Amino acid sequence: GSNVLRMSSGIQIKTKSAAQKSKLCSPESQPKPSDKLNPKTIDPFRAYSQRPSAFAATYARGGIPCRLVHGSVKHKLQWESPPETVPFDPLLLTLAEGLKETKHPYTFVSKEGFKELLLVEGAAGKAIPLLPRLVPVLKAALAHVDDEVFGRGLDALVQLSAVVGPSLNDHLKLLLTNLLKRLMDKKYREEVTVALQKLEHYGGKVS
């Protein structure tokens, strides 16, 4: 009993509508009696999908060393240890994976964590060796149908470019089709144009 309450009380308010929505969508998924014994079933972040994403699972396990702190005006991240002491491999890749999330708090944690990790001293040296693995992950965010996911991917790409500079150039051709596709969309034209200008600025000429 008390364990269940403890887990849910902190996040009850925020997720009420999500829980209601999921009830409407799937009347046939009645909880099994055995679910009562499993505290995981009351985790509201699982309301949408049966299997949590890799990022959500890592976050739940405590594998992401930062947490969302609710501020009255602005949310911020709290790191368990200073970000400069955290290994980029695998955390930068995990956070990049998290950019594809569409649920709170993962959306905030991945976006903000990615940004703050790249701000640490010596970030370039740590990020450059990861580019071959990082760029395909960013590509997945840029190819995502969700506009917000695309926006987060675009921001992350520009942040990465600012840190690693010309090292990113060889990898950009992997991403250009995704960027050009959104460039055709009026809604995104300006944002993508600005991003491409920044990529060119940080990377020297992009051919």
UniProtKB/TrEMBL annotation:
Residues 1-41 are annotated as: Disordered. Pfam families: ParcG. InterPro entries: ARM-like, ARM-type_fold, Parkin_co-regulated_protein. Residues 1-20 have a biased composition (Polar residues). This is PACRL protein.
